[in-house]
Every structure is written in structure tokens, then in C-alpha cells.
Prior knowledge:
Elements: H1 2-11, H2 33-40, E1 45-49, E2 52-58, E3 66-72, E4 77-82, H3 86-89, H4 98-105, E5 110-113, E6 119-124, E7 131-137, E8 143-150, H5 152-158
Antiparallel strand pairs: 1-2, 2-3, 3-4, 5-6, 6-7, 7-8
Amino acid sequence: MKNIHALVFCLGLGSLVACTGMGPHAGLIGQDRGAVIAKLGAPAQERKSADGARLVYPNGPLGKGTYVFGVDAKGMVTAVEDVLTPANFVKITAGMGADEVEALIGPTRSIRSTAQGYKLWMYPFHNSVCQLFMVEMSAENKVLSTANAPAPECESISQ
């Protein structure tokens, strides 16, 4: 994992391109939460927020976005964003708990176990260099490290 972590510094997070648009769900802003659920089904997570709730929709395992809908106290959609961005990735630090990670970037749809007993949470995301973001979790569900790595679909291209 340390080799992959070094790769992050070599590539530099600045070279990654984040998807900054509202995504395919911008038309739901101003509608009630029922419209979101009618279109997308039940959210993978619903998290309470200071001003209402956040409905979380990961597009995994191969989708490259996790869309979070901000819903105010009246149940109206006020915002939608893809949270799988380098700006959110750098907020994830060693020692954070699994719940804190999921609050920032949503649940993963792909988990791999390592020989050392750790788990790698993998998040494909929109970027120009065919990378995925990984969070190495301890057996106690605490972040050990994070890194970017080549996405599996790109490995076949380079061979």
C-alpha cells in the first residue's frame, strides 16, 4: 500500500480532473424528496444534516459517481453533488472511522481483503487519468491510508 500511496504524490492530486457539474440529476433541485425516490429508488443511505437530510446514491460497482441530494427540513431538494472528488478525498485521513468516510464520500460498492487482514474500499470516480480512489481500512474499521491506483478497466488497455 505504501507504493500506491507514493504514486499519489508522484501524480499529484492537482492532475486529477473532478466532475464539477451537477450531474444527471440537476433537474430534481426544487422538487420534493419523493421525486428523487420515485426516479432513483430508495437511497443507499439517508443521513441527517443540520438543515435536513442527505440522500446518498452510489452508482457502483462500476459507476463513477456517488450523488448526494441535500434535502431541507421541508423535504425539498436544495442541492445535488457528486461527492467522489479529489477535494473530498484529501479530507480522509488516517484514524478516521468508517462512518466518517461514508459521511464524506458515501459507501463503497467494492471491497477487497488483503493478506494482512485489511480491507480496501475502492471508489471509481470521474477523472482524466483512469484512476480509482482507495481507502485502506483496519480490522477495527479505521482508515490506515488512502491512495489512487489504476482502474481495472484501464489495465487491459495498457497491456
